[in-house]
Each structure stands twice: as C-alpha cells, then as structure tokens.
C-alpha cells in the first residue's frame, strides 16, 4: 500500500476540509469562533501526517499554531497569532483542501476505470 487513504476516507477529508475553509469566512461567527471551528475540522481530518503534496500545507498549519501533537485538541487564541500566522493558516488550509479534493477526484476516476474494466472482463 502506498499510504494513500481509501476513497471513503478521502471523501470524508474533502468534506471536513471544505467545512474548515468555509468556517473561516462565516459572517455569523466571531473571528475566534471561525478559527476554532476551522481548526477543529482540520484536526479531525488526519489521524496521521498526510502524504504527497498535502503534507507541506498541513505542516505549515501545524507550525503556525505552535506544533501541537497530532490528534490533540487544538486551542489557539486568535489574539496570540501574528498576522503572518493567521494568513498562513488561511492560505494553507485552502491549499490543503484543494490537494485533498484533487486526490479524491483522481481516486474516483481510477475506481470508475477499474469498475469499467471489471465489467468489460465479465462480458
């Protein structure tokens, strides 16, 4: 196995990261609530370090929030973040969501092609 999550896991990651990105722009919440919600979804998305192109933006987020142990509850006071750290979190989260979305789309295409090939073999 190459370490790539299965298709169901990728779909869940896409959903969670999309929600995290959307949370950052939620006008109904305070800036702290937006950050808390986004980081909550972000931290639940990965049980282990992601692989491939998703690793770099994932790592930048962890560094910006003080490098807590993976899997722990993340609590970051927005007032303690520098503007650069806040920007890093926002940009890297959007980049990470795009990487996972692309990986999921590629996996869905591969699964569809494999299913078609299996059906052709049966015929």
Give a brief outline of the structure:
By secondary structure, the protein is mainly α. It is built from four helices and no strands. The chain has one domain.
Tell me about this structure.
The protein is mainly α and 123 residues long. It has one domain (7-122). The protein has helices at 7-23, 31-45, 55-64, 83-122. Helix 1 (7-23) runs antiparallel to helix 2, helix 1 packs antiparallel against helix 4 and helix 3 packs antiparallel against helix 4 (83-122). The two termini are 29 Å apart. The mean pLDDT is 90.
Q: State the end-to-end CA separation.
A: 29 Å
- How many strand elements? 0
Indicate the structural class: mainly alpha
Bin the strand percentage.
under 5%
Mean of residue pLDDT?
90
Please outline the helices and strands.
Elements: H1 7-23, H2 31-45, H3 55-64, H4 83-122
Helix pairs in contact: 1-2, 1-4, 3-4
Quickly list its features.
67% helix, 4 helices, 123 residues, mainly alpha
């Amino acid at each position: 196995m190459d370490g790539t999550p299965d298709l169901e896991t990728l779909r869940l990651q896409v959903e969670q990261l999309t929600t995290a990105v959307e949370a950052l722009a939620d006008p109904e919440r305070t800036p702290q609530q937006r950050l808390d919600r986004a980081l909550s979804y972000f931290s639940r998305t990965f049980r282990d370090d992601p692989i491939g192109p998703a690793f770099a933006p994932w790592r930048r987020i962890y560094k910006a929030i003080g490098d807590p142990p993976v899997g722990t509850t993340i609590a970051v006071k927005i007032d303690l973040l520098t503007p650069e750290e806040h920007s890093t979190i926002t940009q890297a989260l959007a980049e990470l969501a795009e990487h996972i979305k692309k990986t999921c789309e590629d996996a869905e295409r591969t699964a569809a092609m494999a299913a078609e090939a299996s059906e052709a073999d049966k015929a």
